[in-house]
């Protein structure tokens, strides 16, 4: 059974950030999620339709597609692609990991009337950052494949990088289908 969490009521909110926009109105909200044990990603809430828990058995595999595409599933009567975000970004694919879990969280994004589920192990918090504080990614920082899917990065209060996912580029990766 798919559980929908459109209101983010069960997500823990990082108390150091307020969800309201700043008085200047220049801050944006992002959903934080782990990309691996050391690096976290951010997804703009403006691109997010919801977050659902997905059992891998709910995903219908589709033959002869890119390896990062796990398949399609039914969400509210709509067939949506579920893609392994780590696999797309060049990390170990979901099904090849040791101690693979049989479920994950799909961040549902919509770009130009196309909804796609970006499967990750978990989602963390909603955080607020000023887009003007976003830092550019240099070619020497990351593999080119990973860097092409990012808009830049922020640094959190502990000094850790938070990679900002470019949902438009992620959706473009599906265009050959």
Topology:
Elements: E1 3-4, E2 28-34, E3 40-44, E4 48-55, E5 69-75, E6 78-84, H1 85-88, E7 103-111, E8 114-120, E9 126-129, H2 144-147, E10 150-155, E11 161-165, H3 167-172
Parallel strand pairs: 3-11, 6-8
Antiparallel strand pairs: 1-4, 2-3, 2-9, 4-7, 5-6, 7-8, 10-11
Organism: Dendronalium phyllosphericum CENA369
GO biological process, one term: signal transduction
Protein name: Chemotaxis protein CheW
Overview of this protein structure:
With 177 residues, this protein is mainly β. The chain has a single domain, classed as OB fold (Dihydrolipoamide Acetyltransferase, E2P) (Beta Barrel), CATH 2.40.50. Helix content is 8%, strand content 38%. It contains three helices and eleven strands. The strands form two sheets. It has a six-stranded mixed sheet. Strand 5 and strand 6 form a beta hairpin. The relative contact order is 0.23. The N terminus is likely disordered. One of its GO terms (biological process) is signal transduction. It comes from Dendronalium phyllosphericum CENA369.
């Amino acid at each position: 059974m798919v559980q929908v969490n459109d209101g983010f009521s069960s997500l823990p909110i990082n108390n150091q950030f307020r969800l309201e926009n700043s008085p200047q109105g220049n801050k944006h909200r992002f959903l934080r999620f782990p990309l691996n044990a050391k690096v976290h990603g951010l997804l703009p809430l403006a691109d997010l339709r919801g977050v659902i828990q997905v059992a891998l058995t709910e995903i219908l595999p589709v033959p002869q597609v890119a390896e990062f595409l796990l398949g399609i599933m039914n969400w509210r009567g709509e067939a949506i692609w579920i893609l392994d975000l780590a696999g797309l970004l060049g990390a170990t694919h979901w099904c090849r990991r040791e101690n693979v879990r049989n479920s994950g969280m799909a961040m549902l994004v919509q770009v130009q009337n196309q909804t796609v589920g970006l499967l990750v192990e978990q989602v963390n918090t909603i955080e607020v950052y000023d887009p003007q504080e976003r830092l550019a990614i240099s070619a020497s920082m990351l593999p080119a494949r990973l860097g092409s899917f990012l808009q830049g990065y922020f640094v959190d209060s502990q000094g850790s990088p938070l990679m900002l996912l470019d949902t438009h580029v992620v959706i473009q990766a599906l265009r050959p289908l």
